[in-house]
Amino acid sequence: MTACKAVALLVLVCMVAVLLVVYACVSPQPDWLSAPVPGGRHGLSSPGGRYRDIVKELGPPSAHDFSPGGFAVWDQQTLAQTTTGWQYARVELRDEQIPHGDHADFLYTWMRIPVPADKIGAVRALSESVTYDPLKQEVRARCHFMGANVGTLVLAKRVAADEMTAAAAKGAYRDTIQGAETRQGYVALVRELQTHASSLRK
Q: Cα separation of 82 and 148, whole Å?
C-alpha cells in the first residue's frame, strides 16, 4: 500500500469514527430506565445509560423502540458492517433491569460457538445469564456492559474448544470480566472472538 493510500484509509477510518460519535450525541435518545435498581445493591448501570456506549462501538441499531419497555437491536447484517462487532450474531439492549448479583442485566449478545454435547452443561454453568441454542450453535451472554458479555463468550469458547476446563473457566470468570473493563483487556478479548469467528468461516 502506498503512503497516499494509507493516509486516505486512515482519514476514512477517522471520519467514520467521528460520525459514530456525532450520531451517538445527537440522535434521539431512548425513554428508558436510566436510574440504578432501587436498593443500591445492583450497581449503577441502566439500559438508558448504556445505549450511547453501544452506539459508539457498533453504530446505529438495526431496529429500535425507544418507548418505555422498548429495545434496540443490532442484527447480523448491521454488525457485519462494523470492525468491532462482525463476529456476533446479534446484540440486543432491552429496557429492563434483571438483578444479578452486584449488577442488573439488560444487554444480550449472541455468537456462533459450536459446543460439543458433553460440554453444554459446563458452558451454561459459567453464569445464570448464559444460554446455548444447539440448533443454531449460538451462545448467548447477558450482562450490563459489552466487556462482561465478551468475557463470558471467550470463556464459553475456551471450554467448548477444550482450551480450558470447566472448573478453570469458572474460576477465571470474575478476573476475566474485570479485565474486560480496561480498554486493552477488552480489545484482546474481542480479537480472540474474531479469530474464532474467522476459523469457522474456513
A: 20
